[in-house]
Every structure is written in structure tokens, then in C-alpha cells.
Amino acid sequence: MSVEVLHGGLSTTVQDAGRHGLYSLGVPPSGAMDDFSARVANLLVGNDERAAVLELTYMGPRLGFRYDAVVAVTGANMPPGVDGSPRPGWEAFEVKAGETLDFDYLRDGARCYVAVAGGFDVPEVLGSRSTFARVSLGGYQGRALVTGDVLAWGAPPRRARGLLGARIDEADRPRFPRALEVRIVLGLYSHRLTPDSLADFLATDWTVTPSADRVGYRYRGIELEFVERDEVPFGVGSSPWNTCSLNYPCGVIQLPGGVEPIVLMKDGVTGGNYASVGTVITADLDRVAQSKTNETTRFMPVSLDEALEARAARRRSLSRIHDRLAGSRA
């Protein structure tokens, strides 16, 4: 079972739930930037929620299906169609052999996810099918899809056809506002900013620049000021925003030069020596991934307990969706 890429779109890659456990070796997790939407797409077609999907960025591909398939499209509002006939997002539908799946222009959000019953079948590399294109690792030949590629998928679960027409309640669908509030946990090197500058950082509406991709999101706003040091520690750069080298978690907010903060994303570097003001909580990284150039973001500090509760609430939401879909095919 396979699909031919008739047009690759702007950037279409194979992603799954990520390549975990190798961060200490300098290998980032990769995986779907909007993890929630990718998992829901899989649940809609009866897959394990961690199965491989296609991630579409800004502009979708054209895909010619050689076999019948049960498909779901989630994430950004990039309306799908089959042979020119509109299909709903966040709902399982059929694409028959010989038909073409394509996408209208992007309305809201930045990234869309396509799941097919059976999951896209590319080799596992270091425990994941995700694409890490910077080093040509994983996915389909380590790169974005281009015209002429042929992508296979696995045997569909028997329950897949029973899910045709299954949909996600409106209340469970994320929204993609153009003015975003993102929760962060302050720390690591937030003390390197002056108190006034830290307050200004949190009060600023930061604008997403064109440098926003799977590696990191760069923002434009104000210039930040750092506390002067009487003595530079051994091994640390002389600039006030330099620190001892440290590991970076996904979502960390770097402050290179005190201008244009960078939120590191799924393909981001795993360590460095730029001061960081805090880290975007896991539950809100999906929201960052769905923001795009010239949209604004304000960073809102929360406690670690609040961050953990937000992560648990997200997991409960996925469990609720799973249970509802299981009931719909019972």
C-alpha cells in the first residue's frame, strides 16, 4: 500500500512521537512539532497514537493514493480535499485508489498532520521514524518529501473502517490565535537579567520572526539588559549573556545578545552557553509550533506544579478522545 507524492508542498516530513533517550548524546527528539494534533490524527484512524504521520508546514502537498485508505487531517486549518471535493478536518474519511488528496491555503495555525490507517512505513532509526533533516536522519531518506517519492503505509487496523466519519468534538480541538499566551517556568539563568528587564520580558508582546522552524522560534521585541559581573567565571565567554555550557531542554528560551530570544524546538541544539530565561511548559510547546511569522506571543510565568498539572490535563484530554473513539466503533 502506497501513496505517490505529486507535489511535496513547502515542507512535508514524516514524524512520529519522537526519538527519546538520546538527548545526552546530542540527538534531539524530533517528532511532531504539534504532538497533540499528531496523536489525535492517529487515534481517528485507529492507529497507536505514536505512529508515523506526515507533518505539513504552511503549504500542503498533493498525494496520489494507489490504494484505498482511511485518512485523518488535524492541526492547522489547511482544509483537505479529495479530487477537488472538500473533506473535513479532525474527522476520519476515505481516500480511494486513484484519488488525490490535496490542501487549500492555510487559514490558521502553521502545521497540519495527515494520518493514514496503518501508519506511514519508513525505517526506524534510533528507535523512531521521525525526520531530523539537519543531519539527514530518519523519516523518508532523511529529508522533506519531493515530487516522485513513493511512501508506503502498514496494514490498517481492522477497526479503521469502523471509524469512518468519527470526529473530534469542537471543545477538544485546539485554537490557533494570532496573539498567543504561552506559559513558561522561569529558571536556569533568569537571574542574569536585571529585575526591570525580566519584568519587561514578561510584559512584552514578542513578534515571531521569519526565523521560526523546527530548530527554534526567534522573536523580535525589546533589548534586554543583564546584570554586570565583577568577575567572569573560568570557561565562560566575556559577554554578560554567556554562561557555563549546559544542557538545554526542549522549549528553553535562549537570550543571545539580549535581543531576539529563541525558543528551541524539536530539532534544536541540546546544549550551549547562552543564558536562558526559562522554559516553555510541555503542554504549550504545541501552541508555539502553530504560531507563525508576524504573530505575537506573550510569555506567562507559572509554577512547576502548574506546569505538571497542565501536562496531566493534556494527557487526560487524549485519554478522553481515545475512549470516545473506542465507544464510537463499539
How does this structure look, described?
With 330 residues, the protein is of the alpha+beta class. The chain folds into two domains: 2-173, no CATH class; 179-309, Cyclophilin (Beta Barrel). Helices cover 16% and strands 30% of the residues. α1 (35-44) packs parallel to α4.
Which structural class best describes the helix and strand composition?
alpha+beta
Overall average pLDDT? 95
What is the first-to-last residue Cα distance? 27 Å
- Rg, rounded, reads 21 Å
Helix tally? 4
| Range of strand content | 25-35%
Residues in helix, %: 10-25%
Q: How many domains in all? A: 2
* H/E element sequence: EEHEEEEEEEEEEHEEEEEEEHEH
How is this fold's topology laid out?
Elements: E1 2-7, E2 12-15, H1 35-44, E3 53-57, E4 62-65, E5 69-77, E6 80-82, E7 85-86, E8 92-95, E9 100-103, E10 108-116, E11 150-152, E12 179-186, H2 195-203, E13 206-212, E14 216-220, E15 242-247, E16 252-254, E17 262-264, E18 271-274, E19 276-280, H3 282-289, E20 296-301, H4 304-328
Parallel strand pairs: 12-20
Antiparallel strand pairs: 1-4, 1-11, 2-3, 3-10, 4-9, 5-8, 5-10, 6-7, 6-9, 12-19, 13-14, 13-20, 14-17, 15-18, 16-17, 16-19
Helix pairs in contact: 1-4
